[in-house]
Amino acid sequence: MATVNDSSVCSVCNKLPGKRFCMGCKKYFCSKDFKEHEKQLSIQFDNEIVRSHDELLDMIQKLEKPDDLSSDVFDQIDQWKKLTINKVKQAAERARHELIELLDKRRTAVTKQLEAITKEIRSHREEENFLEDDIARLRTKLNEIQKVLEQFTRKDTKKAIIATNDQIDWDRIIYIAKGEEIESLSLNTNTKWMQTGVTIAGGNGAGGGMNQLQNPVGLCVDDDRTVYIADYSNHRIMEWKYGVTTGRVVAGGNGVGSRLDQLSSPAAVIIDKERNNLIISDYNNKRIVRWPRQNGTQGETIIS
């Protein structure tokens, strides 16, 4: 750490010859001040390095007891479990009552239809009057009633009225948010995908309303599942938050044109997270535009 130099002066007292040289701070010290300097470095090492190391080690050891570390989160999970179970029970009970009411209505309607046929059958039997047309007509009516009854008495696996467990995305009902630097997404080769989709944007016919799209041709998704959509024929970029029924215009939307506040048939959009911008392929204007995501009133041409 130190070398001898008779020509230097101590950087602390500025009196005695600095015969000791510190390779860290590049200063000379006399023997007395050099010892004090070493002492201060030792204290600094203990306070800044050893203590921080011990605190991190303690945090890692606490991870071995997650109940103590995140008891509030576990409490939230337990509370969510209770609430969800209650809601599922309520939904099942409501569906049960609806099914009973539906069956009663259908049974009443079918009974009335069958009573009319019963009277006609008795009439034909009493009169001993049987014609081919009557038999065919009555057979048709009976077949129609049979089809209605079979909808409720025969299990139809192709047309279920109740969502099965496989149709519910259990992994997204509740999940723990993970830091990007800790976790990364990986897909198992045996992953089973849901066979039915849900509309997350638009779906209200073609148009220029805030709940409509017209020829959406490109999109990208942010970490919070916000979707940015290149609404080609409306000449705008729409932001659609997860779970909402309407979107908002975040770029363009001022009619078709080539001004900096306009777009012309945008075909693609991506997110520049570092600068918090949208990068837009402005197709008919033959340019790439950078547009601020937050309160951006116009874009900037970066490639043309």
TrEMBL record:
InterPro entries: 6-blade_b-propeller_TolB-like, NHL_repeat. Pfam families: NHL. NHL repeats lie at residues 207-243. Transmembrane segments: none annotated. Keywords: Coiled coil, Repeat. Residues 85-155 form a coiled coil. This is B box-type domain-containing protein. It comes from Rotaria socialis.
